[in-house]
User: Fold this.
Amino acid sequence: MEKLVARINELARKHKTVGLNDEELAERERLRRQYLQIFKSNFRRQLDSIEWTDEKPSLPH
Assistant:
């Protein structure tokens, strides 16, 4: 994931300075989609690990 983000940031910096060619634009789009897919998967995993209970928390006296 770190390498993916690093490459996305590298392409973003290049886009702001000298621009990207068609191949780099396609790579940037592919990497962004891949990043979002991983992010959504990790977030879903976190949500799925939450355990819900109907119990009310006990308050300290």
